[in-house]
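Slide 14.
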Amino acid sequence: MPWATLDAKMMKRLDQIVLAISFVAFSWLAMQAVHELGHVVGAWLTKGEVTKVALHPCIISRTDIGHNPYPSVVVWTGPIVGAVLPLLAFLAAKVCRSPGVYLFRFFAGFCLIANGVYIAFGPAEGATDTGVMMQHGSPRWLMLVFGILTAPLGLYLWHRQGKYFGLGEADGKVSRRAAVVSVLLLVAIAGIELIVNSR
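Slide 15: predicted structure.
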């Protein structure tokens, strides 16, 4: 095999690996940020007191609430906003025919699956969202319904999107621009979280 062909194949695979790893990592951090934004909005709407929002690339995010008159509202707005806001962003990107709309689609699917599985199957005790939900009267069946409504929709959004990430007939070919944008997004969100968390 000629060296030029080998180099081209290696670069194609490198772009694919960079896009896949960086965008999944970005999606994880951004999903947590949007989820915590939901808790903050819930606290703000119910006159609750947000004492800290912990976001860092190396931790599981959390929002600490001081005075909390409506804990059920605050705890539920996290996964609801965390699932709905990325979906709305994807729909807006689709309507506007944004370049790279498949990245919006992947992220929306990621958030729907992550929030849905977490709420449907999370632990029933402790300071987790699911534990707090059950402590304040949310029945397990309601949490399961949330998961049933969100996670399959997320899987649907992921359906047939593999070609954009170099899978199947794409044979490793992805947009280099998308890979670069994905890395920049990851660096930006990780950097912001490191700066904010160090205060």
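Speaker note: The chain has a mean pLDDT of 92.
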